[in-house]
Design a protein that fits this description.
Chain A contains eight helices and twelve strands. By secondary structure, chain A is an alpha+beta fold. In chain A, helix 6 packs across helix 7. The longest helix of chain A is centred in the middle third of the chain and has 27 residues. Chain A binds a DNA duplex through helix 7.
Amino acid sequence: MTLAYIPDDFASRAHLASVGDALDRMGVRMAFAKDEEVYAQDDQADFIYRVVSGAIRTTVLMSDGRRQIGEFYYPGDIFGLEPGPDHRFSAEALCDGVVLVLKRSALRAAGADADLQAAIWAAMTRELERTQEHMLLLGRKTACEKVASFLTDLSHRRPGEQLDLPMSRQDMADYLGLTIETVSRMLSQLQSNSVLEFAGCRHVRIKNPAALARLAQ
Amino acid sequence: MTLAYIPDDFASRAHLASVGDALDRMGVRMAFAKDEEVYAQDDQADFIYRVVSGAIRTTVLMSDGRRQIGEFYYPGDIFGLEPGPDHRFSAEALCDGVVLVLKRSALRAAGADADLQAAIWAAMTRELERTQEHMLLLGRKTACEKVASFLTDLSHRRPGEQLDLPMSRQDMADYLGLTIETVSRMLSQLQSNSVLEFAGCRHVRIKNPAALARLAQ
DNA sequence: CGTCATCTTGATTACGCTCAAGCTCCGTGG
DNA sequence: CCACGGAGCTTGAGCGTAATCAAGATGACG
């Protein structure tokens, strides 16, 4: 990890935070290389983070190496919010990117910046909603529904003509509770059904969003 | 649902909340019958709840009837905490029981009751930790590991010589992302391996907690 | 004591996993 | 610019775990 940018009057600005995007003004920009760790499991949860560019995954490991991905985060998303004192998941960069980092104590010291507090509260809300939706997916959906749900969700979070996938098939598999082979098969099947069209394995166009949403249940 | 107990000077006491258990003094006791709904999916999340007796499950349904149970709550547990404006899951009584209910606005009006705030924060922390552990279970554990994890967890939350299960096999299955048949088979297997001993299908004794914990991974 | 929901057990099926080749694509260096 | 190499992806064959379908057994309650 390398410091990409530190505001020159970081400390003195803290108390001025009141309007607009406090994170932008108070935070420190840090660049992360692909697969670099932003924070580790059991680290103290002293900071909050926002993705500037690139993408982030949060993961938990079992002793035998089985892995579960908790969530993917894209530019604009806030992550690292945990009410407890330490992180239960680790966070890593999916690809090279930049993250804005803000110490929680600085946040408290700055007092009630209404906008920032609202943004954090909104992020916690989204976080919980997504986690609960993820539990339903893991517990009760079929492989096809899982993959369709994943793509539908991603397309809503990253609108655009073409969807590009910053994560590997292994990352998708560990997010969906599947194997890479099953993920690959489902994607191939969706392509042969004319729901998707791939232009290289990391670039998809959703040809039939309605059908995809239907398959996602 | 029936009102079981309303403090006679409910309103006047609110501003006195400062030490001890504010929930006890400010909350309203309500009795729920087995399978009765405490709150519904998409209800406004205006209240927080604490189990006094009995047990509660939170559930989410798919359109075709598939069900996922988010969590079980036992006496002393706080539930219904959601940062968003409405509930994503519904909550129902597993068996007849009593729940203490406190309106959030009353909570805010009462100001900073340090003990209560700390209890709520601790509950949110536990909630998130449990949810993340639950995701790992749903996504990456085998049927046997799921059942063993469930019993190990339950035994820690409800210590005692004998463990009694307030939920049906269907509830366990919907919590673990399995079918009732698989749950039943795993329990039978654990009994034949002398890890468990049943005295009726709702009462278990854990004969070998170490083995159970090992199977839970 | 009888009835019915709930739970257990058995037989069979199927979905997704494992193991095993190939293939693609991308970066690298000649 | 193209050949090479290798990680990551796809596809195939066979298997295994858990689901489904189908009887029975248990036990709670009137």
